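Predict the holo structure. Ligand: guanosine-5'-monophosphate.
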Amino acid sequence: MKETVILDKKFSELIPEDVIMNRINQMAEAINRDYEEKEVVFLSILNGAFVFAADLFRKINLKARISFVKLASYEGTRSSGSVKELIGVNEDISNMHIIVLDDIIDTGYTLECIVDELSKRKVASIRIAALLFKPAAYTKNIPIDYFGFEIPNDFVVGYGLDYEGYGRNLHSVYVLVK
Ligand code: 5GP
Ligand code: MG
């Protein structure tokens, strides 16, 4: 079994590169079919989704644009809770079909913030595509329209996902060895 060490932790291969690529082809085919004749704006969540977004987007044959967005948190001036703001959406997305691209859906908290923000902008539709999905950790009701793989509630790295900033360049997805 393929193993790798990042800093102080050992990881073993969970999803090999060729399996990921095959699955992304299938996801792109489904999106191409579902949005035939439509224009789509992909919004890829930084940082982790950049590898997935690059591979998926090149398989899309629709009239499509892509932007890379980030959730910035800052302390609200009136409330004590932290406020999330979606930054990086520079074009007009009103009346557009949006597909949010994320590396992994864990609790779904990030996703909910993004969907809430997008809903305020009068877009035509919002769907979600994620490479990985942890159903056991998911606490929200937003459907994950396209996902690559359901995985257990364990920490993974590779293919864009990091541990302390490292491991994003691994070609496969690796899971923490406990
Ligand atoms: P959520 O808001 O759904 O709980 O978390 C989503 C974000 O947390 C993901 O976009 C990702 O950045 C990070 N995350 C969640 N699970 C993992 C994991 O197993 N490995 C890594 N590297 N990041 C994760
Ligand atoms: Mg992320």
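The CA atoms of residues 52 and 137 lie 21 Å apart. The chain has a mean pLDDT of 94.
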